[in-house]
Specification:
Chain lengths: 480, 337
């Protein structure tokens, strides 16, 4: 079920009413309702998806309980390995098998063999959100193994944690240490949290429907016909894609966090105005925070992190970014995207002092404009790999950007209407800048502004969904 | 919790009011049953979703008319008059114009499938297509084009009404609508914005036929092709140009399913590729695909440079050809048969 659908608009109030009015007094029933609602939400795409999530849930629940009981180090390692292998095995099979087949065939063809990848391809159902919930479930078994978390004995509670519908298919990827304990305590309805959740949902809808979907029109047009356009138009296309993907993904997180707040849950922040970052290191502390911190805690630090030699530190960064690229998609373009980000970060590792890398903790101001623009430009260029349909496409795109046609006026169909989209993007950036100290752009409006002004703003945003809303596009991150 | 619901109710009150007005006034004729979606003459009318008008009219009159012959297509197909077509069909044929504004391949497939799924007859069919129509395999958006929930079994009911409510609450529409209701007459700005249509029409609900007789009279009186209109008839390349190839795998699946239904229904059908003013010939690969799927004898290609497209007087403007052209085409198609 999509967040932006009539189905969800009917589903959410029904679950909300059942949750607070019918089972509100019983914690176990509240959790059971969450599991049932989450399975309906997920099965709405395809009921066959449910078998995998149920299997992963039961397996990790069992492994969690076994890890809690088991004191033998070897046996504990074996149990953790089982969880990792099965979870990542499913992920690899459903997401990467055809990519591995293609790579295999390419390698064989290179050595003179004749093979057809198409005949070897496995017809698989693309499973929505598999990358998200397998990582979330893995965080649980790893944390129990590390004894940072006590395993839950209640399978319903654990199922609710794995399948919690607001963040099931596109994150934030919650840590068991943060989300699971929230299922242990009875939720009380909190007016302030619920209304703020509604505001965050509204901001998410605006970001998705008005910003991302409008940017998608031009990003798709320019990327899909890139051979026809000049370097300046292609750069503009990359710019549109930058805001499409940011608007799209941050919107999902806002809606997810807002929805969770309606049910008395607090989810982690996933985006913290990443396009105002002053360096690539800072960008990764502000972009898809739940994934970055997952890789930090479960891959980067176990590999040694920044301890040891600089060479080891750089190796660890390269591994994390390669995996991050691969996590996003089964294609060389995603690997190239991850590698490019690693290359952007290595100079900081080499030269930057620790104080500088800690800059993300302090918000940017206008004096940082130069470094913000530089970081944004690098990020935008890297997105070309992310959006391109293949490596040759990405390279063709870059070769045109870095040609003399970069210094021409962009020309493409619908340029006039694109100006309106650019204006909307400018307003969006201004709103994000003004509220960069807040969890979301409407947070301050909810507490500090006079009600008529506040409500007028909400009405304007709702009407803008109707007036400026482009053809609905699927959330990009569903494919991951 | 009580406070939350009271705040929510207060906040949504204006929206509830708008939805109530939308439901009661029903300016797009999508809420309440309607015996005739268009009025005869010069009365100003609000642009409505033709897909919905066609589907609702078909359902409304099917029990009495027992339709079994259909003309499918976009607005270019409305000039294929039922009276002209009827001359080529047996007397048992009961014709219905099953068109939609900016019709798509998706829309035609949906209509053919709907008739078949309802267990209703489909003995004769004319598919009036062009490369633009064939290229579309997904539903269009916008209140004038979003597919009718009648045909989808209600699955897009929400999206359909959301599109209409969105159109209704736009300040431009609300202003125009209020002005029209108060003044009772169409003003030039309303027509310029395409919100209100005041073209002289004749509508026959039983066949769902919309005719523009007054234009024909103006042409007879040599008052139609004004210098302003002539500016629309742009110069076309002297050599034959081709439309891009549009039929891909998804298109092929929809076309094959249409052909399959025709086979099951023993439908006598013709696929007419429209003679468009742009003189772009349909891509040969697409013509071949249509011939393979439907049979070469059933596909009639009038696109490209030919005697019809050469003469601007065969057109009302650069998009729509006139009824006499449609009549000629039907004569040629059925004479061959």
């Amino acid at each position: 079920m999509h967040f932006i659908s009539i189905d969800f608009a009917i589903f959410l109030p029904i679950v909300f009413i059942l949750y607070w009015f019918v089972v509100g007094k019983n914690l176990a029933l509240q959790n059971a309702l969450i599991v049932a609602a989450s399975y309906v939400f997920y099965g709405w795409w395809n009921w066959r998806f449910l078998s995998l999530i149920v299997f992963c849930t039961l397996m990790d629940y069992g492994i969690g309980v076994a890890l809690q009981q088991q004191q033998n180090i070897k046996a504990r390692k074996l149990l953790l390995t089982l969880s990792i292998v099965v979870n990542l095995g499913f992920l690899a099979f459903f997401k990467y098998s055809n990519f591995f087949i293609d790579s295999f065939v390419t390698a064989f063809t290179f050595f003179g063999a004749t093979m057809s990848a198409d005949s070897l391809h496995i017809k698989l159902l693309p499973i929505v959100g598999i990358s998200f919930y397998t990582f979330q479930s893995l965080s649980y078994t790893i944390d129990v193994y590390r004894k940072q978390l006590t395993a839950t004995r209640n399978p319903i509670t654990f199922a609710a944690f794995v399948s919690f519908f607001p963040q099931l298919v596109a994150g934030p990827i919650e840590r068991a240490t943060h989300l699971l304990p929230q299922f242990y305590v009875k939720r009380q309805f909190d007016y302030t949290a619920a209304t703020d959740g509604m505001r965050q949902i509204l901001w998410g809808l605006f970001t998705k429907i008005v910003i991302a979907d409008n940017c998608a029109i031009y990003a798709n047009q320019i990327f899909n016909n890139s051979a026809q356009y000049s370097g300046s138009t292609l750069l503009l296309g990359a710019f549109f894609f930058s805001f499409q993907i940011y608007g799209d993904f941050s919107a999902y997180s806002h809606i997810a966090i807002g929805t969770a707040r309606l049910f008395g849950f607090s989810l982690m922040r996933n985006f913290n105005t990443p396009y105002f970052s002053r360096s690539m290191v800072e960008f990764w502390r502000r972009w898809h925070i739940s994934l970055s911190t997952w890789f930090r805690d479960y891959v980067y630090i176990p590999l040694g992190g920044n301890r040891g030699t600089k060479a080891k530190h750089i190796r660890n960064i390269c591994i994390v970014f390669l995996l991050s690229g691969l996590w996003h998609g089964a294609d060389y373009t995603f690997i190239a995207w991850g590698t490019l980000h690693a290359l952007f970060i290595i100079p900081f590792v080499w030269w930057a002092s620790k104080q500088k890398s800690d800059a993300a903790n302090t918000p940017a101001n206008i004096s940082h404009l130069g470094s913000i623009l530089l970081t944004f430009t690098l990020t935008t260029l890297a997105w070309v790999f992310f959006r391109a349909s293949s490596m040759p496409h990405a390279l063709q795109y870059f070769s045109e950007i870095f040609s003399s046609s970069l210094f021409t006026i962009p020309q493409f169909e619908g340029r006039g209407a694109a100006m309106l989209t650019l204006l909307l993007v400018a307003l969006f950036v201004a709103a994000e800048w003004h509220t960069r100290h807040q969890p979301h752009a409407l947070a301050a409006a909810g507490t500090h502004w006079w009600r008529p002004v506040r409500w007028s703003l909400y009405y304007i945003l709702i009407l803008s969904l109707l007036y400026f809303g482009a053809s609905p596009q699927q959330f990009i991150y569903f494919q991951f | 919790m009580k406070k939350f619901f009271i705040t929510l109710l207060k906040f949504t009150a204006p929206f509830i009011l708008i939805v109530l007005i939308y439901c009661i006034a029903d300016p797009f004729k999508v809420i309440w049953p309607c015996t005739s979606y268009y009025a005869d003459g010069m009365q100003p009318r609000i642009g409505i979703n033709k897909d919905h008008a066609s589907a609702s009219t078909y359902n409304q009159y099917f029990s009495t008319q027992q339709y079994n012959a259909f003309i499918f297509g976009n607005s270019r197909s409305i000039f294929y008059r039922v009276a002209d077509w009827q001359q080529h069909l047996p007397t048992s044929a009961h014709c219905f114009h099953f068109d939609a504004s900016a019709e798509t391949l998706y829309g035609i497939h949906q209509k053919v499938n709907y008739i078949h799924q309802q267990g209703r007859p489909l003995r004769h069919a004319l598919l009036i297509v062009d490369h633009v129509l064939l290229s579309q395999t997904t539903p269009r958006s916008g209140h004038l084009f979003v597919p009718s929930p009648v045909l989808s079994g209600g699955s897009n009911w929400g999206a359909f009404h959301l599109a209409h409510i969105s159109a209704f609450v736009s300040p431009q529409f609300l202003y125009t609508y209020a002005d029209l209701k108060i003044s009772g007459r169409a003003k030039p700005y309303m027509q310029a914005n395409n919100l209100i249509d005041q073209r002289p029409t004749a509508y026959h609900a039983i066949t769902n036929e919309l005719q523009f007789q007054a234009y024909e009279q103006q042409i007879q009186q040599q008052q139609y092709y004004t210098p302003q209109l002539m500016a629309e008839f742009y110069t076309r390349p002297a050599t034959q140009q081709y439309a891009p190839q549009v039929i891909q795998q998804q298109h092929r699946l929809l076309l094959q399913h249409i052909a399959q239904v025709f086979q099951l229904q023993h439908t006598q059908y013709h696929i007419i590729i429209s003679p468009l003013y742009d003189q772009l010939a349909m891509h040969p690969a697409d013509v071949t695909t249509l011939q393979i799927i439907f049979g070469a004898a059933q596909v009639h290609n009038f696109s490209g440079i030919n005697s019809i497209t050469a003469n601007y007087t065969n057109y009302y403007e650069s998009s729509h050809y006139r009824p006499h052209v449609a009549r000629q085409i039907m004569d040629r198609v059925y004479r061959v048969e």
